[in-house]
């Protein structure tokens, strides 16, 4: 079918008839499955998440209460999905949850004129398919998620990889992880990645304590950790007063951002490096 494809995922307050969408992740692809656009939004559902749902997505009521309502992004969402074939790993559920949001605000449901594909059902029909849960499928494809929590955008990326595998292509992720473009209130203080500056207290990675958070486009997490060790640095898992550098990729961890903000408010804190700055320090002799 010669039309764009939108692969999407939702996180919700629960599974019931009154539950709401708390986050939406979507990737728009061309007919050849080439990446075109990405969308990642969070919403204030104006109701508490079921404890089991919150354990899955990790979005607390306190955080969601500061976010915009779905209505503020209604037109943006509909434009992103316009004239596209819809794909999700559990299409019936994700479509139903989005259509409920549209209905609550007097908008028509998602356009299914170009059809839809459920990668869960398609995978289950394969001889080796099994139950077809997303975590099990990506393990089969040699992929893994960044952490234990499920995020709508990460799941949309992983569902895209499954779609590519189903169509006989390599299960590549279409882009790196991106934070919600509309998120409010996190972190508490501004976080700015800085390029390397001449001769701070630590001018190279050798002997430094370094925290890595988020995803890099140029290397995997394992490759970044190996490069750190080769440069004579010590990898830290948490940010504290002893941390010399924090390398910030896309979608950095919330807890690490809060720790950085707290240290900055106290007038301290590590040097922050974006991916280019991190690579520049890796290239320096030690």
From TrEMBL:
Residues 4-172 form the Exonuclease domain. SMART domains: EXOIII. GO terms for biological process: DNA metabolic process. InterPro entries: BRCT_dom_sf, Ribonucl_H, RNaseH-like_sf, RNaseH_sf. Keywords: Exonuclease, Hydrolase, Nuclease. Pfam families: RNase_T. It comes from the Bacteria. One of its GO terms (molecular function) is 3'-5' exonuclease activity. Gene3D superfamilies: BRCT domain (3.40.50.10190), Ribonuclease H-like superfamily/Ribonuclease H (3.30.420.10). Transmembrane segments: none annotated. CDD domains: DEDDh. This is Exonuclease domain-containing protein. It comes from Teichococcus deserti.
